[in-house]
Amino acid sequence: MPGLLLGDEFPNFEADTTIGRIKFHDFLGSSWGILFSHPRDFTPVCTTELACAARISDEFKKRGVKMIALSVDSVEDHRCWSKDVMAFNSAAESQLPFPIIADDKRELAVKLGMLDPDELDKDGIPLTARCVFVIGPDKKMKLSILYPATTGRNFDELLRVIDSLQLTAQKKVATPVDWKPGDKVMVIPSLSDAEAAQLFPNGVTTKELPSGKKYLRYTQP
Ligand code: BEZ
């Protein structure tokens, strides 16, 4: 059964990290947050993912999103592995621009439902899957995605998703398939045409459909 659902308050856990002990809500402050777990330090897919996350960390910063990673290894391992990650980026002199949580007792992995039963360590204990949680400034969970250990994530997609979450938190719109910032958006179904006309001064266009139902309403936000 899923533990944490969209709209739930994200747990205010305490944990050791590469920047010291944190209380998660204090770490977030009034920012958005993204917590991404990975199976294990010193593994190839994870290294490419964290290197990518580091390369585009300014894009998360621009959007006011604090980044934090997690795996079931120690702070000491995380610090050592971070150097490999930055060397992979040909930036060996720079620090990894976000902290990594040390969940070596797997407490958070269990609490947040992050274990991958198909990926076991040498003792037969499950490793963490590739979870993504996006947390809003109200500390509520806005998005969760779960990938198995064998499939690396696309961090550009995570930025796209954050753009959608931040836009739809402000305006009564929804973003269609493959939406990118600047594209038209959809007026949400619960808004009447009269309300939509008031809310969207750029106008609303409705696509004619065989059903005659006028639910495909576009606007430029
Ligand atoms: C990896 O990061 O390369 C990896 C970790 C666990 C299972 C499979 C791949």
**How would you sum up the major sheet?**
5 strands, mixed
Helix content: 25-40%
Rg is 20 Å
Give the oligomeric state of the chains in this entry, treating copies of one chain as homo and distinct chains as hetero.
single chain
Describe the structure.
This protein has helices at 24-28, 44-55, 57-62, 75-88, 107-111, 155-170, 193-199, and strands at residues 14-17, 20-23, 32-37, 65-71, 100-102, 115-120, 126-128, 130-135, 141-147, 173-174, 185-187, 204-206, 217-219. With 221 residues, it is α+β, with helices and mostly antiparallel strands. It folds into two domains: 8-153, Glutaredoxin; 171-219, Antioxidant, Horf6, Chain A, domain2 (Antioxidant, Horf6, Chain A, domain 2, 2-Layer Sandwich), CATH 3.30.1020. The longest helix is centred in the C-terminal third of the chain and has 16 residues, at 155-170. The protein is elongated and about 60 Å long. It binds benzoic acid. Benzoic acid is lined by residues 39-40, 43-46, 119, 127, 149-150. This is Peroxiredoxin-6. One of its GO terms (biological process) is cell redox homeostasis. GO terms for molecular function: 1-acylglycerophosphocholine O-acyltransferase activity; peroxiredoxin activity; phospholipase A2 activity.
